[in-house]
Amino acid sequence: MNQTSVHALTLARPVLRGLTILNLLYAAGIAALLAFSFFIEGWPQRPLGFDLTHAHPNIGNGLRVIIVIGILGAVVVHTILRRLLTIVDTVRAGDPFTLRNARHLHVIAWSVLTLEVLRLPVRVIASAVWEPGRLGGFSFTPWLAVLLLFVLAGVFAHGARMRDDLEGTI
Amino acid sequence: MDIVVRLDELLHDRRMTLTELAARINITLANLSILKTGKAKAIRFSTLAAICEVLDCQPGDLLTFDPTQPSGG
């Protein structure tokens, strides 16, 4: 393993724990915003401080839907971070090439795909109520990342099975 | 296991201990024990050759196929 990989693994655990906490705080924050949105006078103009004089009449509900999607996204991110932390712990323990980790990677791949799918309605809603007619730029990068994760999960599973076969070879 | 490892008999015939064999073929005693007790999943040709050389036997003397034995490893 080269120096970069060693350093990356050393930093991974505290970074993942920090991101987990930040994600939980983010989810709690937007959940609170969602709850308060039903009681705040002048939602969303007043709390967000935007001049939405000519905004879509449904912008308030549109933002609420985006917040709900954001909370769902935070739940998905939480599962990704927890599984990544589990994988990093197995590397520290010296035994990462297991079928269990391959399953974790597979779930992470599906989770990242879910996040990308969740972004689609957000962009549609934003384009409908925020910037009418403007869907924004499309990027292939996140979708390539999803494909990469699925391939990596498959390769990892194959490697874990090969390692399993070698176990018990004298 | 369907493949029966007759290492105990060969060692007894040659008055050799498992520890001595392990030292002579440069395999850990733990791994050799796994082989002796039939818990190994596979054996490398190099290991088989080393055992046969030290015990002066053929692979067929060391390994036999017995379909009545339960599969393991």
Characteristics of this structure?
heterodimer, A: 170 residues, mainly alpha, 5 helices, 77% helix, B: 73 residues, two-stranded antiparallel sheet, 2 strands, 52% helix
Low-confidence stretches of chain A: none
The CA-CA distance between the termini of chain B, in Å, is 7 Å
How much of the sequence lies in strands of chain B comes to 5-15%
C-alpha termini separation of chain A: 26 Å
Q: Low-confidence parts of chain B, pLDDT < 50 over ≥5 residues?
A: none
The overall average pLDDT of chain B, rounded, is 91
Give the strand content of chain A. under 5%
Sequence of secondary-structure elements of chain B: EHHHHHE
How does the major sheet of chain B shape up?
2 strands, antiparallel
Order of helices and strands of chain A: HHHHH
Widest sheet, order of strands of chain B: 1-2
Radius of gyration of chain B: 12 Å
Shape of chain A: elongated
Tell how many strands the DSSP assignment of chain A holds.
0
Count of distinct structural domains of chain A? 1
Notes on the protein architecture:
The complex is a heterodimer of chains A (170) and B (73). By secondary structure, chain A is an all-alpha fold. Chain A has helices spanning 3-37, 45-48, 59-93, 99-129, 141-166. The model of chain A has no long low-confidence stretch (mean pLDDT 86). Chain A has one domain (3-169). Chain B has a two-stranded antiparallel sheet with strand order 1-2. The radius of gyration of chain B is 12 Å and the shape is globular. Chain B is mainly α and 73 residues long. The mean pLDDT of chain B is 91. Classes of the chains: A mainly alpha (170), B mainly alpha (73). Chain A binds chain B through residues 165, 167-170, and chain B through 27, 31-32, 34-35, 39-44, 47, 73.
